[in-house]
Amino acid sequence: MTIEQELAELRATVGYLKDRQDIHDCIQRESRARDRQDVDQINSCWWEDGVDEHGAVVNLAPDYAERANAGHRAAFNFTSHNITNHLCELDGDTAYCENYVIGGLAWKDGKTTSLGIGRYIDQLEKRGGEWRILIRRCTIEMTLDGDAGWVQSEPVKGFLKGLWSREDPSYERPIRWKPRDEGVRW
What we know:
The chain has one domain: Nuclear Transport Factor 2, Chain: A (Roll), CATH 3.10.450. Strand 5 and strand 6 form a beta hairpin. It is globular. The chain is of the alpha+beta class. It has three helices and six strands. The protein has a six-stranded mixed β-sheet.
């Protein structure tokens, strides 16, 4: 194998790995943005002509972020979307992904937390060098309800609370520790 062939193979491998990482980052960023109710960040993960299918509800990308956030605010105090298994099949500038998701949902009643377990079946496209979601289909495969009282217990007191805004501690730069009396805490 010549040096030119080795370099071409290396370039192809690095390009493939970069695409895979950019795709995974987009999917993770979108889930994080929904848990912060960050409309700008959610929108940055979707193409304008994108479509989200959540059960019987179909959202066009320009309306998706506001509608999803309003739905979460109406029913829950907090959400936590956790991407676990990530499968990705690349076909040029199109990616077909299956992402397992565990959604933690803290109901407004403050007494119940639910876990919804399902998958995001996504098609992403690369346009202008950037990967974004074009189509998302969501499955629900099992759920679990539990007592939400533990977060009100003594062992949890002092832990930071997640916030549905850019005031969430994850946006802070630089990240610094703070005394227990600073920040929004349990």
